[in-house]
Amino acid sequence: QVQVVESGGGLVQPGGSLRLSCTASGFALHYYTIGWFRQAPGKEREAVSCIRGGDGSTYYTDSVKGRFAISEDDAKNTVYLEMNSLEPEDTGVYHCAAKRVTTARQMCASYGPYDYWGQGTQVTVSS
After folding, report:
1. What whole-number distance in Å separates Cα of residue 58 and Cα of residue 90?
2. For residue 118, what are the CA distances in angstroms to 21, 24, 97, 126?
3. If you placed Cys at 118, which of 4, 27, 30, 94 could pair as Cys (CB 3.0 to 4.6 Å)?
């Protein structure tokens, strides 16, 4: 199937860590720009971090700089989002999206259209 699937979400205490995975099937993420977006009840969808497969350039929203890290593993056709020092404000459903010929900054500044959009994985930060 041609799709992206997210995994790795869960319940974690403030200050804890999680690593999310976005795995593509049927196409190579290396030739796309990939973004992580999160949605929480009562809040607008927010771009978290994006990476361009072609050159590895990245973008992070200010609220996660220094805490999150995005990376790509071509062999596994997977993009990761390492989340550290998690805060309750990080709670939400995290979606992965992919789009061709887009810079990391442009990907994170856009709400679409996207070539592929995952079903999301829930991240809950609570004590």
Report:
1. 19
2. 11, 9, 6, 24
3. 4
Per the structure block, which two tokens stand in for 7? 């995994």
Q: Which two tokens stand for residue 57?
A: 């350039």
Nearest partner of 100 among 26, 5, 35, judged by Cα: 35
Whole-angstrom Cα distance, residue 97 to residue 122? 15
Q: Which residue, among 59, 63, 2, has the nearest Cα to 36 in the 3D structure?
A: 59
User: Is 91 a residue whose pLDDT tops 80?
Assistant: yes
46 burial type by CB count under 10 A (0-12 exposed, 13-18 middle, 19+ buried): middle
Inter-residue contact 63 to 86 (CB < 8 Å): no
With bands split at pLDDT 50, 70 and 90, how would you rate the model's confidence at 55?
A: confident
